[in-house]
Each structure stands twice: as C-alpha cells, then as structure tokens.
Write a structure and sequence with these properties.
The protein is 34% helix and 17% strand. The protein contains seven helices and nine strands, in the order ββαββαβααβαββαβα. Keywords: Iron, Iron-sulfur, Metal-binding.
Length: 231
C-alpha cells in the first residue's frame, strides 16, 4: 500500500486497476490517501477497474473508490468484491474452514479475471451514507487503538514489528516496541511476530495468526523501504 508523495500517471493505458483490502467497510487509509494524491490529468485509459477483498462485509469500499475517481473525471468501468476470510484477529478467530474458503476465493477470482479479460462493464453500487459515518468513526478510532497492544515476555527484541509496519507507527524503546498513535490496524505487527508476543487487549492470545504464505515479512520490509525513499 506504499506510494510516492505525488503519484501520477501519464500517457495512454489499455487498463488501470485498483486492488485493495476492505478496512471497516471502506478504503484503507493509505489507499484513500494514494487515490486523493493521484494525478490523472495527463492520463487516458479505456478501462478502469476496482477490486476489493473482504472477510465479512465490503460496505462502501468500492463506491468510495469510484467517488474519488469521479472527482478526477474517471469513473470505474468495472468493480468486484472478492470474499475471502477475515484475518482481523482483534474481532474474529480465524475460521477452521480457512483452506476451504481460500479455494472458493480462488474459484471466484477466476470469474473476475475472465471479466477483466473480456473488459466487462459492471456498474458500481451507490454509496451508503450510514456506512460512511461508521467508516470515518472507525478509521479515526483506529489511530489510537494501539494503546491497547500488549507486549508479553515472549518478545525477543527482534524489531520485526517495527520493520513491517507500513506507517512507521512502531519504534523500539529499550528493546520493546512502542506505538506512536497513528495505527491503521493492518495488524502486520501481530500477524508477523514470530513469538506471538504482540496482542490486543486480552482478545488475541489464543487466536491463530495468519499472513499470506507468499508474502513473507521481507516483502513488506522492502515495500516500506521504497516508500521511505520516495519520501
């Protein structure tokens, strides 16, 4: 989700896609920031699509994207939501049917891929104002939610949590992670901790951790370094 300070697209493109997870039934804050900054004034594209992944409810995740793009004179031609499973371990214990749901998601993805290959037109559902209010409240609330993180004695001061955080919300103080109150609740620190030493209140101690097996911590760290280089 990292992006340069003033991203822009210039020239002519056959297609442009925006693919992102759903946060609190809306856009992740970093995705919203990226799209607001994105300069499309010198860009021409015949097919623009958006895909959001979600575990429980997708809410306004696609309509928010479409609204931001419309402000730039470019509406979505196609939008799709891909149901997976929720790894928001703060609220949910990972489903025992994780593997089955992954297979189902892969099958659903093939239909989306075929739609994109055929350049199918699919109208984006209208925004639901009540969900927008819920989203804004939750996104704002998430920033200071890091005060509820607990560090157990299992911590080995490896500082992996600091490195995988996409918004530089963690610093190591005396060998322990300290949170800086601009959290986005991506939970990378919780999911990637090799010792399961980071927990949220008393909710996550016994819950299964998960991150995509093809996205190791090194990939997130490299992405964060690129963002820092961009400024």
């Amino acid at each position: 989700m990292s992006c340069p300070v003033c991203p822009s697209l210039t020239g002519t493109y056959e297609s442009i896609g925006f693919i992102y997870p759903t946060y609190f039934q809306g856009l992740p804050r970093q995705a919203e920031r990226f799209i607001r900054q994105l300069d499309l004034s010198q860009c021409r594209c015949e097919y623009v699509y958006g895909i959001t992944t979600f575990g429980e409810l997708s809410g306004n995740a696609l309509s928010q994207l479409n609204g931001l793009l419309c402000q730039k004179g470019q509406a979505l031609h196609y939008s799709a939501k891909l149901k997976m499973f929720s790894n928001y371990v703060v609220m949910y214990d990972l489903s025992r049917k994780l593997e089955q749901k992954t297979i189902q998601a892969d099958q659903a993805l093939q239909h989306i891929v075929e739609d994109l290959r055929m350049k199918t037109i699919k109208q984006t559902r209208r925004n639901i104002p009540l969900l927008d209010r819920y989203y804004r409240w939750q996104i704002q609330r998430a920033q200071t939610s890091d005060r509820h993180y607990q560090i157990s004695q299992a911590c080995v001061s490896c500082n992996l949590c600091e490195k995988v955080c996409p918004v530089n919300n963690i610093e190591m103080h005396d060998g322990q992670p300290a949170f800086l109150n601009h959290c986005e609740q991506c939970l990378a620190c919780v999911q990637y901790c090799p010792e399961k030493a980071i927990n949220f209140k008393e909710k996550t101690q016994k819950r299964r951790r998960y991150h995509h097996p093809e996205i190791p911590a090194a990939t997130l760290i490299q992405s964060n370094r690129q963002r820092q280089e961009w400024g």
